[in-house]
Design goal:
By secondary structure, the protein is an alpha+beta fold. The protein has a single domain, classed as TATA-Binding Protein (2-Layer Sandwich), CATH 3.30.310.70. 40% of the residues lie in helices and 21% in strands. It has 7 helices and 6 strands. It has a 6-stranded mixed sheet with strand order 1-6-5-4-3-2. The chain is globular. The termini are far apart. This is DUF302 domain-containing protein. Pfam families: DUF302 (PF03625).
Length: 165
């Protein structure tokens, strides 16, 4: 199957400096960057799994799975930049969608990009998960994905101090 779908992209232009936005992001998210499988291996029961990952959540309900500092390696090709791609999510949120359709796994965890643009303003960007999963045409997935959208928007507004425009 080959399918075309419409994805809604959000960009929050912040009046805050990059370092402040990044600090707010790290403060609002937990982390499993040492390895999801390593953390999950400590669970013996579904209750253990939930307890372990609940403890890893940040105040936003998200945790960082992977962060790639695009800004650092850009220095090899000219000017170093301030740019971080982070893969964030929560398996306890993901399961609310994946129980209805395993193919959701293509789009969870989600990606969020924080960078300082050429105009000096910090931007927080992401694609709405519900639109990434719209091709699945599953009402239960869509309903759960809308809740994920709301959490992601709330996180972005919190760290950027601005709504998407």
């Amino acid at each position: 199957m080959i399918q075309t779908q419409k994805v809604i992209h959000h960009e929050h232009v912040s009046g805050r400096p990059y370092a402040e936005v990044l600090a707010a992001f790290e403060s609002a998210t937990g982390s499993v960057e040492e390895g999801f499988e390593k953390v999950a291996a400590n669970a013996r029961t579904p209750q253990d799994f939930e307890r372990i990952f609940k403890a890893r959540e940040g105040s936003s309900g998200f945790m960082r799975f992977l962060s790639i500092n695009h800004g650092d390696w850009q220095g090899y090709f000219g000017t170093p930049r301030k740019a971080l791609l982070s893969v964030i999510g929560n398996p306890l949120i993901a399961t609310t969608m994946m129980r209805h359709e395993l193919a959701v796994g293509l789009n969870v965890p989600v990606r969020l990009f924080i960078y300082e643009a050429d105009d000096g303003k910090t931007r927080v960007t992401y694609d709405l998960p519900s639109t990434l999963m719209s091709g699945l045409e599953n009402p239960q997935v869509h309903e759960a994905a809308l809740k994920l959208d709301a959490k992601l928007v709330a996180l972005a507004e919190h760290i950027a101090g601005a709504k998407a425009n």
